[in-house]
From TrEMBL:
Cited InterPro entries: Asn_synthase, Asn_Synthetase, Ntn_hydrolases_N, Rossmann-like_a/b/a_fold
Species lineage: Bacteria, Pseudomonadati, Pseudomonadota, Gammaproteobacteria, Cellvibrionales
Name of the featured protein: Asparagine synthase family protein
Coiled coil, from the record: none
Gene Ontology process terms (BP): asparagine biosynthetic process
Length: 432
């Protein structure tokens, strides 16, 4: 099984690559060969035994989750989910983001910093100049170059036998992904959940038809949503309502894809592309109020500070990559390759209500853009009448406390060992 793809973004120092890791571990030689002269974009994470030590690496955004604990002196246990490590009753640590580290009986040492920071600084200056000139088409060209590298990897995976699905909600982010999938892949399949009473399915159908790609719309009932909400905390290893609500929808989508694929003789090697991450990059989030109860609270800070807060919080969001993996689906989040370009967006532009279409409308052709609404409701909200997953959870009293109890069921004192602090995973202190 092919498990690892990469594309060079720059050949000259500092060298830059996009890495796409699928469910399997990346090749050990790749991790062992990483140096501080490389900047790695994308999604990857893993560890390999090298003599008496482990060498580990993880992507800068923390898309891929990897954890370890030390049950007894000299012993290390690794897992993709911290829930598996809770029974050891020892501190649990995540692999640090954007670094290659050595993990041994003595502790944690940094071997190389492979975050894109050195490479990103010059690109960010270029992006800032374009944005100050209001040259949004020029900015989109920078984004386009990166996305093309990602989709070249996706195309290689399709050539290796993967069936490519695209989560299509009808908004700009997912429609852009569908457009690129059409450009680069031979037979992409768009997939949409229909919660009932939502315009998502209708908009998605128009966009898929315009793109001339196959489109599957999966209807779901309230009972199916509630069943997904019940299992979501364990699958996304989280208790916070926004992430659990998102994860519940992804549970349903994964189940529906596998049911459809099984009935239609589709290859067991399946990949799903999502438009996740862009909302963090452009601060496209709002709190929701249901019967005077406030959900999805955001800190009262400026937009640049909020952007940093949201991007940093991706470290502890496992609502996509890890969740889909548990259904045998490889999840690809192409926007992981462009986060640093959006970090260059100034506060004045981030504060504009139309920041997303200003920045990203050049990524899709006009005949697609005409079907995309300027704004759309969150998928987990559905429609303002029922409020979708959020409304159902509110109606049935399913709160964050319920989700946290689900995570730690049967494990005395486990709540205190959940390694999430201030929206970040706990990491072991680096040795000098």
């Amino acid at each position: 099984m092919v498990s690892f793809f990469k594309n060079a973004l720059t050949a000259e120092p500092p060298r830059s690559h996009y890495w796409l890791q699928l469910i399997s571990q990346p090749p050990s030689a790749e991790i062992l060969g990483l140096t501080a002269g490389e900047a790695i974009y994308g999604q990857f994470g893993g560890c390999v035994l090298d003599g008496s030590r482990y060498v580990a690496a993880r992507d800068h955004l923390g898309v891929v989750k990897k954890f370890y604990t030390r049950p007894v002196k000299g012993e290390l246990v690794f897992a993709d989910s911290f829930i598996e490590l809770l029974p050891y009753e020892q501190p649990i640590y995540a692999l640090p983001r954007g670094k290659v580290v050595e993990i041994s009986a003595d502790g944690l040492r940094e071997l190389a910093n492979v975050s894109p920071a050195p490479f990103a600084s010059s690109l960010q200056l270029q992006a800032q100049t374009l944005l100050l000139e209001q040259n949004y088409a020029g900015f989109a060209q920078l984004v386009e170059f990166r996305l093309a590298a990602v989709f070249d990897c996706i195309k290689a995976a399709e050539n290796a036998g993967y069936t490519v699905f695209v989560a299509l909600s009808g908004g700009l982010d997912s429609s852009t992904m569908a457009h690129y999938a059409k450009r680069f892949c031979a037979n992409p399949i768009a997939v949409t959940l229909d919660l009932g009473g939502s315009e998502d399915a209708e908009k998605a159908q128009k966009i898929a038809a315009q793109l001339a790609i196959r489109h599957c719309v999966f209807g779901v009932s309230e009972d199916e949503i509630l069943a997904a909400v019940e299992k979501a905390p364990l699958l996304c290893q989280d208790f916070r309502d926004f992430n659990v609500h998102c994860a519940a929808l992804n549970c349903l989508l994964a189940e529906k894809i596998n049911q459809w694929a099984g009935a239609n003789g589709v290859s067991a090697k399946r990949m799903i592309i999502t438009g996740d991450l862009m909302n963090e990059f452009v601060c496209d989030y709002e709190e929701e109020i249901v019967e005077q109860t406030r959900y999805y609270r955001l800190p009262r800070i400026g937009k640049k500070a909020l952007q940093k807060h949201l991007i940093g919080g991706l470290d502890t969001s496992d609502r996509e990559w890890g969740l889909f993996a548990q259904y045998g689906l490889d999840c690809v989040q192409p926007y992981a390759a462009v986060y640093d370009l959006y970090e260059a967006v100034p506060e004045s532009l981030l504060s504009q209500p139309e920041v997303k279409p200003l920045l990203n409308s050049h990524l899709v052709p006009g005949d697609i853009l005409q079907h995309i609404p300027k704004s759309k409701l969150r998928a987990q909200v559905g429609d303002k009448k029922s409020m979708g997953v959020l409304g159902l959870c509110h109606k049935h009293g399913i709160t964050e406390a319920v989700f946290k109890a689900c995570l730690t069921s049967g494990l005395a004192g486990a709540e205190t060992r959940i390694p999430i602090m201030m929206g970040r995973y706990s990491t072991e202190t680096l040795l000098a």
